[in-house]
Design brief:
Elements (H helix, E strand, L loop, with lengths): L17 H6 L6 E2 L12 H13 L3 H5 L8 H10 L13 E4 L2 H12 L5 E5 L4 H9 L3 E5 L1 E2 L2 E2 L1 H11 L3 E4 L13 H13 L3 E5 L24 E6 L11 E4 L2 H15 L4 H12 L2 H27 L4 E4 L6 E6 L5 H10 L2 E2 L1 E2 L12 E5 L5 H23 L1
Parallel strand pairs: 1-13, 3-4, 3-7, 7-8, 8-9
Antiparallel strand pairs: 2-10, 5-6, 9-10, 11-12, 12-15, 14-15
Helix pairs in contact: 2-10, 4-10, 5-6, 5-9, 7-8, 11-13
Bound molecules: 4'-deoxy-4'-aminopyridoxal-5'-phosphate (PMP).
């Protein structure tokens, strides 16, 4: 049989990271590769209790039947309240679509706006799976330069003028992969300049609630006067990724189009999951769970920073994130993290090579480390192994 695949599959050869992730089932490997929440931050008891109640009461039918594509009104009302914590006020049910995780929001936005060859601007580097989704819509992906304050506004404007993009995609708070947060000023300018040139923004915010240090910043969406920003957030990192519940907030016309797009994908986000999240929010559990999780993440992040300081060669420079799940770093030396990733596995430790997050394939000397899913002892041991490996490589370069 010859399989005549669609053109869109041509660029989609799967995550470069998949081979590494496959190996991670070996328990002796210390993994800094994934982006999983800590197991003890998944509120098993509360979710079990809520699910039991939902399925015992007269509401069981509601949970087990088909539902509307927009999502339950009761959940959307809770979500309108929830996004106020990101500075997003005055939203209505028409602005609010329940999605099956933030990832679906990226896909729906692409489905609604992208034709083959259309341009999407992204921060260089950005979330790997977003790049894969844009590829699947055969978009032209163009990276915008960034510094510690956020996107370089001159570069953003230059690229808007040059490429006439359909939208800008960004992870503005505790970015995956860099852990960086855009300044308030940068957010205002992004909202202004994209509105001026009639460019949409897809603001992806799975991490802002995981802040261990510093002051919270309002979303780009909170500065949206033109209706050009679609804001995504998800309960994957603050409640459970297994429930697959998130929300898209945007202009009603755009949300309507995304709803039509969603109909053909999954009809509706799992009713049971939606009702669990609605009840979880209603009972005020979400902020309690976040409060409980933050010290665990803070401790693990600090353990990773301490270990990096102790074991890594001086050529390694990292970004100390104030929240999120990742530490991003690069080498001031021609260290190729793509080539060395399998070598690290031989030392029973895994990281993600930073190159996969660059739209233009650069970033060979960069590396993303996840700190949320390993204990403090394993973080120390794993970074020790990595440090030894990189020191050996740097010594070879100096010979
Ligand atoms: N966006 C970013 C930036 C992410 O890091 C992730 C998860 N790794 C997602 C979206 C997707 O998350 P989910 O679909 O589980 O909400």
């Amino acid at each position: 049989m010859t399989y005549n695949y669609s053109e869109r599959m041509a660029k989609m050869n799967g995550a470069a990271t998949r081979e590494i992730l496959k190996l991670l089932t070996r328990p002796e490997i210390i993994s800094f590769a994934g982006g999983f929440p800590a197991t003890q931050c998944l509120p098993q008891k509360e979710v079990q209790q809520i699910a039991f109640e939902l399925l015992s009461e007269g509401r069981a039918t509601e949970a087990l039947q088909y539902g509307t594509t927009e999502g339950f009104k009761s959940l959307r009302e809770q979500l309108i309240e929830y996004v106020k914590t990101a500075g997003i006020e005055n939203q209505t049910l028409e602005n609010t679509l329940v999605i099956s995780g933030g990832q679906q929001g990226i896909d729906l936005m692409s489905k609604v706006f992208l034709d083959k060859g259309d341009c999407v601007l992204v921060e260089n580097p950005t979330y790997l799976t977003a790049l894969q989704i844009f590829d699947s819509y055969q978009a032209k992906i163009v990276g915008v330069d960034a510094d510690h304050n956020g996107l370089i506004i001159d570069d953003l404007e230059k690229k808007i003028k040059k490429y006439n993009p359909k939208f800008l995609y960004c992870v503005s708070t505790f970015s995956n992969p860099t852990g960086k947060t855009y300044s308030v000023e940068n957010r205002k300018k992004i909202a202004e300049i994209t509105a001026k040139y009639n460019v949409m923004v897809l603001e992806d915010d799975p991490y802002s609630k995981l802040r261990f240090e510093g002051t919270p910043v309002p979303s780009i969406k909170s500065f949206d006067k033109a209706g050009n920003v679609v804001y995504l957030t998800s309960f994957s990192k603050v409640l459970s990724p297994g429930l697959r519940v998130g929300v898209a907030i945007g202009n009603p016309e755009v949300i309507r189009k995304m709803t039509i797009g969603k109909q053909g994908v999954d009809v509706t986000t799992s009713n049971l999951s939606q009702l669990i999240v609605a009840e979880y929010l209603k009972r005020g559990y979400i902020f309690k769970n976040i409060e409980k999780s933050l010290p665990i993440y803070r401790e693990r992040k600090n353990a990773m920073i301490a270990a990096l300081n102790k074991y890594m060669p001086e050529e390694y420079k990292y970004v100390n994130a104030e929240g999120g799940l990742f530490i991003w770093g690069e080498f001031d030396a021609p260290i190729n993290t793509v080539e060395l990733a399998p070598e690290a596995i031989k030392h029973d430790v895994a990281y993600i090579q930073g190159q996969v997050f660059y739209a233009d394939g650069s970033g060979l000397n960069t590396m993303r480390l996840n700190f949320s899913n390993a204990t403090v002892d394993r973080i120390d041991a794993g970074i020790h192994r990595l440090g030894d490996m990189f020191k050996t490589e740097i010594a070879k370069l100096k010979k």
